Amino acid sequence: MHFPASKLIDCLIYIEKSDINTRNVESSVSKRFLTITPEDAQPVLKALAAPARLAIFKLLHEEGPLNVNDIAERLGLPQSSASIHVNVLEAAGLVQTESQKARKGSQKVCRSAYDEIVVSFDGPKTVAEDVIEVAMPIGLYSGYDVMAPCGMCSSEGILGFLDSPDTFLSPERMKAELLWFTMGYVEYQFPNNARIAGRAVVELELLMELSSEVPGTSTDWPSDITISINGTAVAVWTAPGDYGDRRGNFTPGWWKLAGSQYGHLKSFRVNDTGTYLDGVRISDVALSDLGLQEHRSIRVRIAVPEGAEHPGGVNIFGRGFGNYDHDILLRLRV
Question: Which CATH architecture has domain 131-333?
Answer without folding.
Answer: Sandwich (2.60)
